[in-house]
Amino acid sequence: MIKNSQQLNAFAKEIQTKKEKYKGKTIAICNGSSCRALGADKITQLIRDEIKKHNLDVDVVNVLTTGCHGFCERGPLMIIQPEEIFYQKIKPEDVPEIITETIIDDRIIDKLIYNDPKTKKKIVYKPDISFYKKQMRLLFESNEHINPKKIDDYIGIGGYSALAKALTMEPEAIIEEILKAGLRGRGGGGFLTGWKWKFCRNEKNDTKYVICNAAGAFIARSISEGNPHSVIEGMIIGAYAIGAYKGYIYVRHGYPLAIENFNLAIESAKEFGILGQNILESGFDFEIVISRGCGEFIAGESSALIASIEGKAAIPRPKHIHATEKGLWNRPTLLNNIETWANIPFIINRGADCYASVGSEKSKGTKIFSLVGKVNSTGLIEVPMGITLREVIFDIGGGMINGKKFKAVQIGGPSGGLVPESLLDLHLDFDSLKEAGTIMGSSEMIVFDEDNCMVDTAKFFIKYLMDESCGKCTPCREGLVQMHDILCQITDGKGREEHLDMLQELAWGIANTSLCQLGKSAPNPVLSTLKYFKDEYETHIRDKKCPAGVCKALIEYIIDSEKCIGCTLCAKRCPVNAISGEKKNPHEIDPMICIKCGICYEVCPVNAVERK
Amino acid sequence: MGKLIIDGLKVDADPNKTVLDVARDLGIEIPTLCHHKSLHPFGSCRICVVEKIWKGESTLQTACTYPAWEGEIRTNSEMVLRARKFILKLMLASAPESEEICKLAEKYQVFETPYKHNPKKWNNKCIMCGLCVRVCDEIMNISAIGFAKRGSERYIATPLDEYSETCSTCGACEFVCPTNAINVSDWTDREIKPHPSIFERGLISRPAVSVHFPQAVPNIPFIDKDVCMHFLNDSCGICEDVCVPEAIDFKQKDKIEEFDVGALVIATGFDLYPLMEIPEYGGGKIPDVIDALQFERLLAASGPTAGVVKRPSDGKIPESVAFIHCVRSRDPEHGVAYCSKICCTYLVKEAMLYKQAMPNGSAYSFYIDIRTGGKGYEEFYQRTKEDWVTFIRGKPARIVQNGDKVQVWSADTLSGESIKLDVDLVVLAPAIIPSAGSVKILKDLRLATDEYGWIKEQHLKLRPLESMIAGIFMAGMVQYPKDITDSVAQASGAAAKVLELFSQPELKRTPTIASVDTEICVGCGYCEETCPYEAIKVDERKKVAEVNAALCEGCGACAASCPSGAAQHKNFFKDQIFAMVVEATKDY
Ligand SMILES: Cc1cc2nc3c(=O)[nH]c(=O)nc-3n(C[C@H](O)[C@H](O)[C@H](O)COP(=O)(O)O)c2cc1C
Fold first, then answer.
1. b/e for B152-191, b at 16 or more Cβ within 10 A?
2. Cβ contacts (< 8 Å) between A500 and chain B: which residues?
3. Residue A1, pLDDT above cutoff 80
């Protein structure tokens, strides 16, 4: 039990000194959900067994199970400190070697180190990897240094010192600091967090609530799993600033590790006197409850989320009256995104000016993105606001897979717009994204290359949104179905000239008349592709062709008899026996049987199969 | 205070009101579908969008939810109309069978939709406004129904799609639905609370608060406490919210009014032989076999279908209708022996009206023989025979459901062929029988009836307006089946009789009534028990029986029952009779 900030300080010092004195190695194994799915927990166990087997003392080596390191594509990952040796794609059979070679003999294992797909160079140390190099990991860095299940680890890296500091400040001063830092909501809307706090503070009401929106996907999960205390610390500061005594963390039911780590963190914070009554002898009381959400996309929308905590269906309501005035159970409620909360300790500790020195003019600090799609390096990245798309995709992401041509990147989740090559120098911040016809949204980035059809891609996202629409309001429920239907007709070769106007009208209507932001932003994939890739739509409609060769109804596979060497490989692999021909003689595809799966196209050793 | 400019009109901004409230106060019309005065604003249909202009930027906001903040609102701008048309087109595609949506769309010059109907939609009238769900939750506090699934698959359902145990069967869901998409019977298999409307012959139900029928006297609504949720569940009270003059008072009590009158005219009407008791014609279980009075309501402009003949099962306009005469009339074995007298004429009329509304439809008439006596009736019948109605002489043996048709099995006794005829609708003319009200009042008044229950007149030919009790007259079908002309004539006669009675300064009675010899009477009360007219009573203080001369009909029952001989018939005293006997038997 820590009574006050002096004791907290002393405890932190103690841990830090211990750490500094430590001369052995630390194996930090990522135990985030992604790496676990790839076998990280088994590897962790094997490492422990192996250490025991070799009778290695804790002075020589210790194991740290951490949260997500971000480079999920390369999992399971480990970083061996202090050198920061980066091992990736570790298999259970590699474990004995890691101990004998790297830990005992200080030798690098060649097959486990990272091979840069762009430069083809092997890279040993984490800071040298281009994926990490251009990142600025203000929040994420600590993931590699702490075990999220241990509050000691968090305190050891300076955790809860911001809380101790905040509790000595006037609430108004805290809010001023957050305002000055220019922090904007990470949930997608980009509303100035300080304003929200101020509105909530100004409400006269005995009961107020704070809520952490951790309903999101990968980013929310990696923070919940990897550094739950940073969120809790942010929430206590926020609650103190606005005068709330109870907080809720809304997590997806489907993320058990996140829930487990949050629960542990809350329990240990209570034991330490950091949560509960009379926090650090400040006289301030605050408790946090975990509320499990169903995992629907719409449940992340703030009014739907509040309804869900209240025990109702997660369905949005009109938000003319803000939650800061009438939120949870009609009380003033401060609802912030999990990443927003995680930023608070940094701002309080390092000061608004320091924070505001990072980022672009109107969007401060760093932002975590999930980077996926056709780039070489995928995973979760943290970058300063204002970084260009080009830097993210070509430096951090390591460029396009197989050197294919970049076509578009979708930013902001399913209802984000698709941004073309001409906008690669776009700055990643709230306002520039909006201008380009997309959103910050859920900060997901999906990169598409020349093999992706933009009509088909738009159709894919509209289908997702159509299925995730709660169905409350007419335009979103009915409009998206119609939009999807038209897109299906276009990709099926039944597109008509008037479909383009119909899509425009649907997009206008859905965007302008929907009840919540899901509907209002849903047309973005269609609007942006109509704007930047209109020619693709036109080719589908007028020429009945899919330039990217994706839309099955619009393509055919033909074997070039000149090129075909009659190897029979395609015939053997064809799942519907549509290919016939004598050995060593040109083969033929029967278009009536062909299901256009494209396997022949992929397997042909001489590129004799053509897609038209 | 800031100002709100709404369509150019300047009013005080008031965030406690919605833009819709303010607009309606100003007489500005904004269409709504999901809005209901008694429910929390929901904002799902989006039809009430208006343009909000604030700092030079236009956005669309739903008037039903948007606070009347300062700024400018336009309820009819180009942007608003574009949005409403857009919404209506989507609704036309998703609820193509809703007449209400079609009408609203027409108002906005939307006559068709470019969008496709989703064949998987759960209900082709529902616009998912949620009023049914919300009324059940917010007003009735029951939540028997809710939304199931999401997105375009969203639908209204009970938990697990099973019959609801909690549904109160109040029918509010059905009632608030703006597009007639909801049926309470989808949620429950129990009896539905709103009773079928008697006036509409059960074709629709009657809400818990209603007026009996449009021309009812007094034309004042009443609350049916047996079904009103306010009384049953301590919930609801919507009628109170919507009644502009604030006339609803739940504290009012039922009361029985007593009047002293000098005469009675009984005009308690008739009933039709109940369909339920006619098993060979479906026994009331085939929805498209209806009786002639139901058909009468379907033809009426003020009826449940506004005068468009739609059959009950699916609301389809029938393309063929069979009219069956003499159902249980002239049928002593199964029904009544008498001729119901009016059916031939009215059924021919109904067939004609149907043909005039549906010139391409087919009308068939099954009859034994046609009796259209009365002024002009026969001529009318002859005209319908020309080429309007096909008359088939034969009494159908059975009527059965055949797919979505109704099949009539009959013989054509003129050609000797047997017939199975498929039609969309069958209209029966069941026998006319005394109404339940007649039976009750005649019994209470101890008025004599014949074997069928028709009231007995003092003399069929000479005193056809008077009942067996002085001062009680009759009019209309309480006596026997007759048409309107005859009923009106009889009623006028009865009224004249009443006036005749009232025009005399004193009530004149025949002197042959009972009297009591108070010297002999001991007040045993035998006479009181026997008197059918309550005309003789024992005075408890004096312990003697007394006769009310105005009530006594002189039947003599008291005299016969009196053990002491105190009760006697005036002018028929024993000694008078003996004297008469003596006189009569004297030798001349
Ligand atoms: C469809 C939809 C989904 C959303 N999902 C999330 C989410 O998963 N997590 C989140 O923090 N915000 C989500 N939001 C945004 C929230 O409504 C809200 O703006 C945000 O949580 C506020 O926090 P902030 O100010 O810290 O950004 C979503 C919004 C919409 C419209």
1. bbbbbbbeeeeebeebbbbbbbbbbbbbebbebebbbeee
2. none
3. no
